[in-house]
Automatic annotation (TrEMBL):
Keyword Isomerase: yes
Enzyme nomenclature, EC number: 5.3.1.12
Entry keyword set: Isomerase
Source organism of this protein record: Mesorhizobium australicum
Name this protein carries in UniProt: Glucuronate isomerase
Class in the EC hierarchy, top level: isomerase
Taxonomic placement: Bacteria, Pseudomonadati, Pseudomonadota, Alphaproteobacteria, Hyphomicrobiales
Superkingdom, natural source: Bacteria
Amino acid sequence: MAVALTNADLLFSAEARPLSIARALYAGIKDLPIISPHGHTDPRWYALNEPFPDPAQLLIVPDHYIFRMLFSQGVRLEALGVPTLDGAPVETDGRAIWRLFAEHYYLFRGTPTRLWFDHVLAHLFGIEEPLSAATADRHYDTIATLLQWENFRPRALFERFNIEVIATTEGALDDLKWHQMIRDSGWEGRVVTAYRPDAVVDPDFEGFSANLDRLGEITGCNTGTWAGYLDAHRQRRAFFRSFGATSSDHGHPTAETANLSDAAAQELFNRVRAGSQDERERKLFRAQMLTEMAKMSRDDGLVMQIHPGSMRNHSASAFQKFGRDKGFDIPARTDYVTALKPLLDCVGLERDLTVILFTLDETSYARELAPLAGVYPALKLGPAWWFHDSPEGMRRFREMTTETAGFYNTVGFNDDTRAFPSIPARHDVARRVDCAFLARLVAEHRLREEEAHELAKELAYTLAKNAYRL
């Protein structure tokens, strides 16, 4: 049955020759298993395997792509059910939240959110009518009913989505109890964790000193000393590896790195541990810790992901009221060439180390990132990320990096999402964009068609699996 909300030629060229090639490439890879090596879905979903809550709690309340757009147009976050830090009342009626969203759905015209959401409505819930104020209640009732069915529970959807492996992301202090429960359940779905140490490497992270105390309690290491602090990280990384982790993830404000002597690093740690308010020292400590994490990755094999360049919590008042991850993280200009040199001088020529670089600063693609990844064995380029996880962002990424870094210094696609139902939609968009790009190269006689078919599979599946050692 034809689905009204999506088109079979979505994101393909309108010209006959590249359209025909793109269709053939896509047909060969559209049903490949999904490798989801970096994301933020909740492991408790897979551990408990309980029915998802109402449609609003599943699809709207956790998705900052959705509520940041609505907020920009005057819709209050409380009206969308976004919880406050102080427990002040917010809307809890899922139908009211859904109606409000549907009334404003037109705001997402032309955005990737619209592509993803229509894909979810059509392919997951079988809905063919566009979402609007007039159809809101019908759609809500359809989705609410389906969410009670056994085959719409998290594990069933994991299998229906053809996910081969998914990585969640947990902080360094997490006990990984949900991953333990998944393991104990005997379910065969592969859900692994990833090590995110921001709370214990960033002196500006709220509660940093207490976080280091807790790190010491968990590991039995003396996190009042530089040596003990590093040992604590090694222990936690080993613990995460025991739950399948193959990567670490680092969300620093910049890509700045440092490579201090042991004595200088110890002195710096002592000052930061004592609560230094010197901004230069705090920045230097973050920079040193990126290099320390890279050295640990060289030793223990965890793939290192660096996600710099977001000014987190740009609105102080929103942060104070709602906390982190509420849509107010804004891209900033990011230097890589100078910033990464200390780390690269230390480990950049290591062939067994993989450091995956992401950016929110597209001006760095051709000027900095592609040339760096095109020569340093340790470096790979992560896909178009966050604000650029979009058809145009993906096209720009390929256009600006391929000529210098090639395809094989990139790592395929990762969805980086909290919105579980959107995972197939996001991977489908990435596969379509890559097939369209490859089709253009074939049509321009820059690539043989058989090579394009090989590359389509690499970009959709193999590169991510290999880069993340999954």
